[in-house]
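User: Hey, quick favor. My workstation is busy. Could you predict this chain's structure for me?
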Amino acid sequence: MKALILNQICDLSQTREPLTAAELPLPEPGEREIRLKVSVCGVCHTELDEIEGRTPPPAFPVVLGHQVVGRVEKNGPGAGKFKIGERVGVAWIFSACGTCRFCREGNENLCPEFRASGRDANGGYAEYMVAPEDFAYPIPAIFSDAEAAPLLCAGAIGYRSLRLTNLKNGQSLGLTGFGASGHLVLMMVKQKYPNSQVFVFARSEKEQEFARELGAAWAGDTKEAAPEKLDAVIDTTPVWKPVVEALRNLKPGGRLVINAIRKEEIDKAELLKLDYPEHLWLEKEIKSVANVERRDVAEFLKLAAQIPIKPEYREYPLNEANRALLELKERKIRGAKVLRVG
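Assistant: No problem, here it is.
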């Protein structure tokens, strides 16, 4: 099969084409696994974290990609949850042990044996992929393949982040960073919390304009103060400064939810600028988001189909994955990025 592979950790500012084309053996599904013929795969900022070593794959070479939509092409031994030809999706959570305390309590995202698609197992930047059938999801018919791909990560992790804010209808929400996940969260809030206002912080004027188009009450730079203090903020940026600014914009008792696998080191000194009375006092909270659970993906797909939420996206052929990743690195973003594989 044709695939794009990552052979080593590299700096994208130096190595502008980190992925190389390769011919790989067709993967065989194991016990209770399925093989997908991949149609599309979303591009996520977490792939930049993998490439640049902030969340490195345990072994190389590896096929990236964890927003995968395809059709079941073969069932492994004991697999039968899906019919041949059925359209399914695979998300960041590739597998978990199923027996530890976290898994038993429904917190499989915290499982010590958590494995991620496209990092700990080959992902969707390839013509075929294998995955455990219990970690694959039927795609609602309302979505095209390309519309569905961003829902599997940007949507699901946004859904989890929104849930962790404990937002109530009528309360105000800030979104720091406005890429694939942020624009889906804004759509969710407009539907689920019709009396709530959303305030967007983004460096790019185009992202600010896009947020206003989607119904944001206000949009400004990450350094600006919101017109009012906010009940909750979700941060999806790769750096530290917006975290400090978000804390300043919170009401007493407000909660900041950080939706990021890792933070880049380039502005780590910003953390030293934390001022306790301004940023943390009066019982403000900070909550990090760790991965997703299966229920996040399943619940969000149903919700997105009911509303419906359809992401804005730009499509690239598989052989232009390096360009899509570089544009993501350079913040050339409006909605999501999706690779057309098959």
